[in-house]
Every structure is written in C-alpha cells, then in structure tokens.
C-alpha cells in the first residue's frame, strides 16, 4: 500500500537517539550510530519523532510500505527489567502506557495470565514480602515522570499482597495524577475473586 511514512537521512543523522525516545511505537532504532526505521508496520505516520530530531534528518515520504499494525506494536511494547526495584523511573515504554503491576505469584497462579493481563501492557512485578521494601516511592517517581494511562494491579488474596496494593494507591495519590487503578485479586487456586 502507498502511505505516508518517515524517512531518515543518515547523512544528516548524528546518532543522538532523541527520535528513538520520541517514537512511541518503537519503530526507530540505532544501528551503526545512526537512526533507522526498524519496521514499516510499526510507524504510524504521525511523526512524533520529527520535532525531536535536532538535525532535521527526519521527514515524511509517500511510498510503498506495510500498513501500520497497532496489534504488533502493542505486542512489542515490552520492557526490561520488570522488577519494580530494578525498573528505571523514566523510559520510552512508559509513555502513554497501560501499566500492569503484578505481585510475583499472580502470573504463576492464574491460567492465561499473559492473555488476560500482560498482553499490550508494560509490566512491573514485585513482592513486598520478599523484597522487604516500600515500593511507593519508586512508583511515585515513575508516575510523576511518565504519562501512565491506566494501572491494573494483580495481587493474591493473601495479606502480604496488601502491601503492594497500598504502595500503588499511595504512589498514585502522591503523584497528584488521576490515573485509573483496577485491582484484580486472585485466590490461591488461581481464580479471580
């Protein structure tokens, strides 16, 4: 199909990577010190990368390209590391993200956890009992520095998971943002309650 898509002039590109951070679809990467369009089907053609480029190396062109594939983009929005205490407070994958904060045990307790909860979300995991930390400060920083669309919290029915729920709610409150939080509780047999 013929459609509008970005074009990167590698002669002008200085390899700063600002366009990589600006691209919410992760269509742009760095190779050999230069920005490149990694996949046509990840580029939505909206050009959030254009104003980020200090070298004016990015422009639009109309050409034969794969159609934008939003489902593929959502599946690709993976983050690493996933442990709350190891996660950076600011990263491109947090921008406009639907965030899943999962207690460690939930993914192993509930069948179809990936399909029902992880798919299409940026995932953070933790266990307040095992980590023996207060996650609220780290989560507050993540919420303050990023535009989080929504939060799904999966927790077990056991009392120790209450600490994770408390930390999420305190962090949202401390951030001063109105981020919707959906809490899903899973029992020890893997059922949602």
Task: Walk me through this protein's architecture.
It is elongated, with a radius of gyration of 19 Å. It has helices at 18-22, 70-76, 106-109, 113-118, 128-131, 136-145, 162-175, and strands spanning 2-8, 28-31, 34-37, 58-64, 97-103, 122-126, 148-156, 181-186. It folds into two domains: 2-71, 2-Layer Sandwich (Alpha-Beta Plaits), CATH 3.30.70.20; 77-186, Rossmann fold. With 193 residues, the chain is an alpha/beta fold.
- Choose one word for the global shape: elongated
Tally the beta strands: 8
Q: If you average the pLDDT, what whole number results?
A: 92
What is the CATH architecture assignment of the largest domain? 3-Layer(aba) Sandwich
Approximately what portion of the residues adopt beta-strand conformation? 25-35%
CATH topology of the largest domain: Rossmann fold
Low-confidence stretches: none
Helix amount, in percent?
25-40%
Total individual domains? 2
Question: What top-tier CATH class of the largest domain fits best?
Answer: Alpha Beta
Main beta sheet strand tally, sense and closure? 4 strands, parallel
Structural class: alpha/beta
Write out the strand line-up for the largest beta sheet, numbering strands in chain order: 6-5-7-8
Give the count of helical stretches: 7
How would you spell out the order of helices and strands? EHEEEHEHHEHHEHE
CA distance, first residue to last residue = 47 Å
Q: What's the alpha carbon Rg, rounded to whole Å?
A: 19 Å
